[in-house]
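Problem statement: downstream parser choked on a complex file, so we are re-checking the raw output for the N-(5'-phosphopyridoxyl)-D-alanine run. The parser issue turned out to be on our end (a line-ending mismatch), but while we're here, posting the original submission so the record is complete.
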Amino acid sequence: MPNIAYVNGRFLPLEEATVSIEDRGFQFGDGVYEVIRVYGGLPFRLPEHLSRLVQSMQAVSISPFLDHEKWDAIIREGLQRSTYLECKVYIQVTRGVAPRDHLFPEVSNPTLVMTFREMADLPRHLVEQGVAVVTRPDLRWARCSIKSLNLLPNLLAKQEANQAGAFEAILIKDGLVTEGTSSNVVLVKGSALLTPPLSDQLLAGVTRQAVLELAKSNGIGVEERAVREEELGQADELFLIGTTIEVLSISTLNGKSVGIKAPGEMTIRLREKFHDLVYRKL
Ligand code: PDD
């Protein structure tokens, strides 16, 4: 079967999958999501993604209605049906279908949607040359640690980046770096990494956690502290991290070259280590 979807208990071809126009996800963005990368048929850090999904649900008062085993079983069945070894699983949970009203319905029946799509490697030139980024004001709400469906400010900033010829926008709030529109940001200073600490201002990226662990276990220093916007321009290397981009070098920031060359040595090293990690279980 090609790309497939799961909607409230049923697997079906992606193009046949639908939800009601009264779904609160569609009408209000009233829901949360996850994106999980599958390498060689195995989801990367599934328990971490599921824990974050449950935390996001709880944070917006959608009661967890499945335990980890059940989530796991649905995802594994989807992978089996799709037959993809390299793919991306998207999970979306909304507060369900109800006549449009800002108040939560008295009884809500959450909608659960998943998609299973084949995932190609990132275009080689992005990996080999690095990507351009621009900085943009972070106009999002105060609870960005929740993986909410409300992505409009992220989309607007990403679109602006695209129009400026860049791959990603790095978001700045009160003079401090928060994250990318769909990625976390890491600076390399000398032989150590620097990245903003976890807070309500950014998503606790699963890739971020994995890369910081890899750095520590390889004797690379890691500092998690507030990062001022101007420090970006002084970094030896910059890179983005996230489920779909893995570890991706930044070559230019607002049109200016970053460091001596991109990808820098540390970025290349961590990207390789990350690949060793994700494929090790094969
Ligand atoms: N986004 N920050 C934001 C705002 C994100 O949307 C993402 C991921 C990340 C990286 O998190 P992780 O390493 O867990 O993927 C950071 C996904 C991929 C998306 O929205 O498609």
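For whoever reads this later: The chain has two domains: 4-118, 124-280.
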